[in-house]
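We modelled the chain as a single entity of 487 amino acids. Its sequence is:
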Amino acid sequence: MSATDFTRTMAGILGGGGLDADVTAYATAVATAGGTLPAAHQAALNAAMPALKASGAWALIKEMWLPLGANGDLVTMKVKLKNGATSPTLTPNNLVAGDYTVATGLDFGSTASNKSITTDFAPQTNGGLAAAEWGMSAYITRDLTNAGAIMGMTSNTTAYLHYGGVGAGGENRLGNSLLTLVPNGSTEQFLARRLVTAQCTGGTQYAYYGGWVKNSASLSTPALPAGTFQLGSINSAFFANAAVSGYAVHAPMTPAQLRALQTFYDNVCTAIGRTIFGSSLNAIGDSYTAATPQGPSDAAHDYVAVAATSLGWSYSLQGVSGRGWATANTGQSKMTDTNGRVGRDAVFVGMLNAPTKHALLCLGLNDARYGTATGLGTGAGTDGLLQTEMMAILDMLVAQGYPMQYVMLGTGYWASDVTNSGPGQTVSVAVANVQKALASSYGTRVCDFYSGQSFGRTDVEAADHLHKTDAGHALLANDLIAAAAGW
């Protein structure tokens, strides 16, 4: 096939947008190395590249790698997506064909495997990075169950990412310094755990993962990492035990740019059939969402679980009775997460700490402050406290780069007896209207549970006439499934 015919064929596969020049250069590098890039893999790169470039992240990346190619094809797998040094390929150490599959990426195996892959990129001589301004990121497709090194330096003296995994407390290191958690606050940054990042900005070293920034003290003498970058086992004491699907060496990025980098990896991996860990749906809510004694018989019958199972999604249920949108603990309106944190940051812990794609937010009926003209914004000269507090949450998510198209606002549902602890029908309708208006303004999805299949159905109410039975949750699940069509 001639070069012209190949270009026409790929253009037909990739659609009318044509071939990205950098993706084409990568395909050429693969061919030059003697590898074979599957058409579907090139198409996935081409589809994901525009958003990465639009974020500004691509321009900051000095070197980048994403393992592609057919199962066992170590030749294609080791080719860099962006070359910032001399060699267009990485050097595998103790790897065999079975260590790389399309479904998993590069699997370094057990903690005693002593397997790694090395690049010739040396920050002190390549890339034009400054001593106080540099970053490195590794992308993992399987969460770690044991502590291990993911990315480090061949000199083994500084700047390696040591990741403890969720069960081990998720510790993170730069060099031999254990990084400490930044105190809870609205300035905390977000990244899901799949992208693990260390960067130095203004002479201060930071590490990002698991929804929080971890930082070290400012460095009196900032320095670029010594040696060349390496993924996997750094030496006999530090083993990866991870499945890795990429790295990038870059100038410091904003949280939104790091999010774009992770999304790029997510989209390419998903498109080629690579499994990435994390829940497909994370539901943040109150007792309507939680599997409480007043509601479904067990967690499996909660509407989120029923809907996620029907959709074939994994899910994380983050419902806490009595939770609202409030910034701090204000009685019934308190925002508390499953770890006991109180305040608006609980949304970040629950929603952003979990590697997830879709987020369902179902809050607003527990706060008595909203049940007034001022609270709902129906009084003169006010936007309403509910709207103000919801906007604060959504604005924070936008600032952290969370894609609004993956957020769904869920309204409260209809209940017959609201004379005691419930919000009342008038308030419920008004709250739903505020949520629907904000969904339109911010570009999120909305699920109108109030007007859904359980409207007027007293036969599916729990004994308190406020919550739903298993049958009621099944109807709510139908509402959620319908709202999630094409999501």
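As a brief sanity check on the tokenised model: The longest strand covers residues 133-142. Residues 57-271 form a domain with the Jelly Rolls fold (CATH 2.60.120).
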